[in-house]
Amino acid sequence: MTILDGKKVSNDIKDEIAEEVKKMQARGEKVPHLAAIIVGNDGASMTYVNSKVKACKRVGFESTLIRMSATSSELELLDKIEQLNNDESIDGFIVQLPLPPQIDTQKILMAIDPDKDVDGFHPTNFGKMSLDMTSFIPATPFGILELLERYDIPTKGKHTVVIGRSHIVGRPMSILMGRSGFPGNSTVTLTHKYTKNITQITSQADIIIIAVGIPHFLKAEMIKDDAVVIDVGITRVPDDSTEKGYVITGDVDFDNVKKKASYLTPVPGGVGPMTISMLLKNTLLARERHQK
Ligand code: GUN
Predict the structure, then answer these.
(1) Range of the domain at 158
(2) Position 64 confidence tier, pLDDT thresholds 50, 70, 90
């Protein structure tokens, strides 16, 4: 059984991006600039956004963090987006999700200039991704593709089962694994909370990608021998014995599944760190596209 070391691979990618930034500087070009908007002060969201800003520093990007109050109106957020769309110094930006209930998320994502949408959530980018056109691929699915590629895990003709149909992970993942090329060319089954007899489906999977946010949902009995298992879950489970008061827990029953799987991502240290590196990669791509 091989552990897919997302932390190591993501560090390799950051090193590669930092090299590219150095080359840009040597050519006298502007370095990539990522902005992030966060509305409210949800603990997990703040942690993610701060990690994104820190990662920018590490690779030599410029970054801007825009904090807005939890009571901000939709119009205030749309105004901020318009400013970033028109600001030539910004190559790409993200609006951290989830947003407070008074704000319509789809309306916000539609307002982002697709050429600066480094999260790849705008319908234009999602459509282009589905049609094999150049776009921004959402960072978490992009990170999973990169892990499969760097570990040279065969995907052609394999049965990939995706569990969870979220717009951020499951849905795009199901499209990407079925596209032509590598990693892709899989036969894909997309399952969700209304799927009946899920074990019957998962037990036929060569590759399982799970993103449901239910700790330890995927048990060893649900997979076949030598399956490849990618765990996207990151739930904070309360635990008073730890300093932070919680432990980060994945969607996979790791200790038992590891006895059966051929490849497995740990949580933390698997898909999570990859997501940040792929956001940086998208921002680098945005800069390069703007440069042309
Ligand atoms: N919330 C959880 N994941 C993401 C992500 O990839 N991007 C943004 N903007 N918000 C998120």
Answers:
(1) 139-272
(2) very high
Task: Write the CATH number for 59.
Answer: 3.40.50.10860
Q: Answer yes or no: do 268 and 148 share one domain.
A: yes
Residues belonging to the binding site for NADP(+) are: 164-166, 234
Q: Any idea what the CATH number is for the domain that residue 255 is in?
A: 3.40.50.720
Say yes or no: 240 and 170 in one domain. yes
**HEC letters along 148-199:** HHHCCCCCCCCEEEEECCCCCCHHHHHHHHHCCCCCCCCEEEEECCCCCCHH
Q: What is the pLDDT of residues 131-146, one digit of tens each?
A: 999 899 999 999 999 9
pLDDT tens by residue, 247-271: 999 999 999 999 999 999 999 999 9
> β-pairing, 235-238 with 246-249?
antiparallel
The position carrying tokens 């930006």 is 93
Q: Is 231 one of the annotated active-site residues of the chain?
A: no
State yes or no: is 156 an active-site residue. no
Ligand 1 atom nearest 139 alpha carbon? 6
111-138 exposure pattern, b = at least 16 Cβ within 10 A, e = fewer: bbbbbbbbbbbbebbbebbeeeeebbbb
| ipTM given for this complex | 0.94
Cross-strand partners of 160: 188, 207
- The predicted pLDDT at position 50 comes to 96
Interval 220-246 mean pLDDT = 97
Instruction: Based on the fold, state whether residues 106 and 143 are members of the same structural domain.
Output: no
